């Protein structure tokens, strides 16, 4: 069950089950031939059984937290600073933590207790001894190389969208960098792209690019009712590790949100625990786009036994992250949103509790959590995505990162509901009800 607990305080999510929802039917294409397989995201990626993630986990896990924690456990050679010597950012962080501490502590305890009553977060998991997949992601570098490619002419509307798989199963024609690619099938598809094998969920659209090549998404022809973004915020840890290129906060204003958002579109931004980032989103970024701030939610990371992955009051690393929710209110946009007629109020201070992935920057899917606030027929977009979601459109320079086949296990299977090749039609419109697992018969978005 993907949503283990749903209460007035928030949710407990089984993040791995949320991923697996889109892969109950999967077709694997190799050399123009197809076979049926069952796909599951590897279990070891979500087996965080000890606080601090344990000292034996590789430094690549969760952004090098292990390396940082090992340093914490060593005797410090430096003189401890007095509280009065904290810089302003550290003081602001402590003030913010003190403000929300009781909400985090009491809400998490209640949600974890409810989850344990259902047999979840009890620590009783089957240990998997296989190492974590360590796929070297080169997508961002490929995006840099693709900047030399000519952009598709704005007037060539039909050429800005392309099917993932041709009728013969071929994917070699796919231009991932300057056209939006759509998997129009009702099943997940395992395909070879750029010499690597990826698993693509059904009814999914994506664009692999950075800011310089975002035009195909802006001209895609869809106004989205939900936009979730996880920006690559600047911080010292990222700079030291060089795991990915960070982005100055001011550059986020370049995102064409007014071109992408429908009226009353719900916008959700993942924010680090740095107060300056939170202030920037609330006081500068959202007002710049015409977005009204509605609430702050918290993603609380726990172990498989329900303990915080870091001590709640740790000065080095907190076991929670912030999400800022708002609605696009621009009066210039007259597009009718599916959520406009019956907009559900967004409550403040809600918690999303889950076992985090051991893979750096992999966030839990918010699809099930946000469903009541956007409606069953919502069109959904993720910006700075590193994975794909069934029914969603995704954009980013690492948009396929966690779709690499190395993160999945494959089991051959006979599918009695076999789909013939003639059902894969290149000009068939993409139907993308993001929540079609629970809401059948949803109408497609209008291109």
TrEMBL record:
One of its GO terms (cellular component) is cytosol. GO terms for molecular function: nucleic acid binding; RNA methyltransferase activity; site-specific DNA-methyltransferase (adenine-specific) activity. It comes from the Eukaryota. Keywords: Methyltransferase, Transferase. SUPFAM superfamilies: S-adenosyl-L-methionine-dependent methyltransferases (SSF53335). The keyword RNA-binding does not apply. One of its GO terms (biological process) is methylation. Pfam families: MT-A70. Belongs to the MT-A70-like family. This is Methyltransferase 4, N6-adenosine. It comes from Lates calcarifer (Barramundi). The gene is METTL4.
């Amino acid at each position: 069950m993907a949503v283990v607990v749903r209460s007035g305080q928030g949710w407990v999510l089984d993040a791995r089950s949320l991923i697996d929802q889109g892969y109950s039917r999967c077709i694997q294409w190799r050399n123009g031939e197809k076979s049926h397989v069952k796909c599951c995201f590897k279990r070891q990626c979500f087996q965080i059984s000890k606080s601090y993630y344990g000292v034996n986990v590789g430094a690549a896990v969760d952004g090098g937290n292990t390396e940082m924690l090992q340093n914490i456990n060593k005797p410090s050679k430096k003189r401890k600073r007095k509280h009065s010597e904290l810089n302003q950012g550290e003081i602001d962080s402590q003030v913010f933590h003190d403000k929300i501490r009781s909400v985090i502590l009491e809400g998490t305890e209640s949600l974890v207790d409810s989850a344990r009553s259902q047999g979840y977060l009890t620590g009783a998991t089957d240990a998997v001894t296989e190492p974590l997949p360590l796929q070297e992601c080169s997508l961002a570098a490929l995006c840099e190389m693709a900047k030399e490619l000519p952009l598709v002419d704005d007037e060539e509307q039909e050429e800005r969208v392309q099917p993932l798989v041709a009728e013969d199963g071929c994917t070699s024609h796919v231009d991932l960098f300057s056209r939006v690619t759509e998997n129009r099938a009702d099943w997940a598809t395992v395909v070879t792209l750029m010499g690597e094998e990826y698993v693509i969920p059904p009814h999914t659209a994506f664009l692999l690019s950075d800011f310089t090549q975002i035009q195909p998404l802006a001209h895609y022809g869809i106004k989205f009712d939900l936009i979730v973004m996880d920006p690559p915020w600047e911080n010292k840890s990222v700079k030291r590790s060089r795991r990915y290129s960070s982005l100055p906060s001011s550059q986020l204003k370049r995102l064409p949100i007014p071109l992408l958002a429908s009226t009353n579109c719900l916008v959700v931004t993942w924010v680090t625990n740095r107060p300056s980032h939170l202030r920037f989103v609330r006081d500068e970024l959202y007002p710049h786009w015409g977005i009204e701030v509605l609430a702050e939610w918290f993603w609380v990371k726990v172990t498989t036994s329900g303990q915080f992955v870091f001590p709640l009051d740790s000065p080095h690393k907190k076991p929670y992250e912030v999400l800022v929710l708002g609605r696009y209110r621009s009066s210039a946009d007259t597009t009718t949103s599916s959520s406009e007629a019956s907009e559900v109020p967004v409550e403040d201070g809600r918690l999303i509790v889950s076992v985090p992935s051991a893979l750096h920057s992999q966030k839990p899917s918010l699809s099930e959590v946000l469903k009541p606030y956007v409606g069953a027929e919502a069109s959904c977009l993720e910006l700075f995505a590193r994975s794909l979601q069934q029914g969603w459109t995704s954009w980013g320079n690492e948009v396929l990162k966690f779709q690499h086949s190395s993160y999945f296990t494959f089991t051959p299977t006979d599918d009695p509901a076999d789909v013939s090749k003639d059902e894969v039609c290149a000009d068939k419109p993409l139907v993308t009800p993001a929540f079609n697992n629970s809401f059948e018969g949803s109408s497609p978005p209008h291109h």
